[in-house]
Specification:
single chain; 395 residues; alpha+beta; 2 domains; seven-stranded mixed sheet; 11 helices; 50% helix
């Protein structure tokens, strides 16, 4: 039997048994596809995570979980981490050893994190204002492009911070913040964040507030006046402002020393190797704080991830071997059921080598089609995976 006849008979057999052929092709496709797909996705995630970590030399935070500090400082998650006093950030700046960028990412507005920071953060991350302008005063906010798109926000609109609990507003002061700018797309968690001055976060927390000046209030709202100290106390009927405007911004004030007020982390950018060594020594001498390298923490994290990945790949390898063996068994059983067909072919003049070639053709067809199909799917995933990973990591 010539090759054309062999091709015709093999193709006719496969099309006649479409369900069996489809099952075998699908099973073999998954065998080739899953390990490669897992490796590709993990690789893309690692690239994106390592890129943001690599851009951040050090993070300063309260002693505790270094990994939680990294996720709070880079991705604004883990808002419950312990805080450090703002004076520690100021001290680094005053010692002229590094640029210290404060971060306070405890509060939210809906599903979006409110990040209190300084203007230096935008330059450090390379974030540019696409519409509107930069922050100028308390109570203003700049939102990421994803926040604006998901919520239909434009410059001039307002966002309101969410209370921590539904019935107890004592811990968090819901504040109406004017949107003065919308950031350009960066493909990072900054796209899903709302940026304010760190002092605005302190006002949300209740560490600062604004109301009418006490000496201008109705006497009925005054509790007492201490003639010696000059302190005027007011009662609860005095309404606090829930929005900072040009007319009332001067009436806002903070309780106590702002150096005692909290931040969750600070990005540390040493001026040089000498300054970096001095900073590390200074922080190491104080057990209350830690200065971590996000890159090193991510190395440890991905060592664990890769260990899990190896286990998963070994499991997939075992499943793949089992699938291949089942495929071989299906071919053997189907060949036993085709005895009458092979007998007829022998009567028509086909020899044993032709029979073997026919079976081999069917096996090669299934394997080749599954390889091509898995390659095509993998190619399509390679086109969309970077965007999907970027969107997921951006929040």
């Amino acid at each position: 039997m010539n090759f054309r006849g062999l091709l015709y008979l093999g193709t006719r057999y496969l099309t006649r048994h479409k369900a069996r052929t489809l099952i075998l092709v699908s099973a073999f496709t998954l065998v080739w596809l899953l390990p490669s797909l897992i490796a590709m996705v993990v690789g893309q995630v690692e690239t994106r995570i390592r890129a943001r970590a690599g851009e951040t030399p050090f993070l300063l935070g309260k002693s505790g979980s270094a990994l939680e500090l990294v996720f709070n400082g880079l991705y604004f998650t883990k808002p419950e981490i312990q805080v450090l006093p703002f004076r520690e950030v100021q001290a680094i700046q005053e010692d002229d050893l590094a640029t210290a960028i404060p971060l306070y990412s405890r509060f939210s507005a809906g599903k979006n994190r409110i990040v209190g920071t300084s203007i230096d953060y935008f330059g450090f991350r390379g974030l540019e204002i696409e519409r509107g302008r930069q922050l100028l005063r308390l109570g203003e906010c700049v939102v990421g492009v994803k926040v604006a798109a998901d919520n239909g926000i434009s410059v001039g609109d307002a966002v309101i911070s969410s209370p921590e609990t539904l019935f107890d507003l004592g811990g968090v002061y819901p504040l109406k913040m004017k949107v003065v700018g919308i950031l350009g797309r960066s493909g990072t968690p900054d796209d899903a964040a709302i940026f304010v001055d760190v002092k605005t976060c302190w006002i949300i927390e209740g560490l600062g507030h604004g109301h009418e000046e006490a000496d201008k209030l109705d006497p009925e709202k005054l509790l007492e006046t201490d003639s010696e100290s000059g302190v005027i106390r007011v009662n609860a009927s005095v309404e606090e402002y829930n929005e900072i405007t040009e007319t009332n911004v001067a009436d806002f004030h903070f309780h106590g020393d702002t150096g005692d007020h909290p931040v969750t982390a600070a990005i540390i950018l040493p001026y040089g190797a000498k300054e970096q060594a001095l900073l590390k020594g200074s922080v190491a001498a104080n057990e209350s704080f830690q200065m971590v390298s996000p890159t090193e923490e991510m190395d440890e994290l991905f060592e664990t991830v890769f260990s899990v990945q190896k286990v998963v790949l070994w499991i997939l390898f075992a499943v793949g071997i089992a699938t291949i063996l089942i495929g071989v068994l299906v071919f053997l059983l189907s060949n036993r059921l085709r005895k009458d067909e092979f007998r007829q072919l022998t009567i028509l003049g086909a020899d044993l080598s032709t029979m073997r070639a026919l079976v081999l053709y069917e096996a090669v067809f299934v394997i080749l089609v599954s390889l091509l199909l898995s390659a095509a799917i993998l190619f399509l995933f390679s086109l969309v995976t970077p965007g999907v990973v970027r969107a997921v990591l951006a929040g």
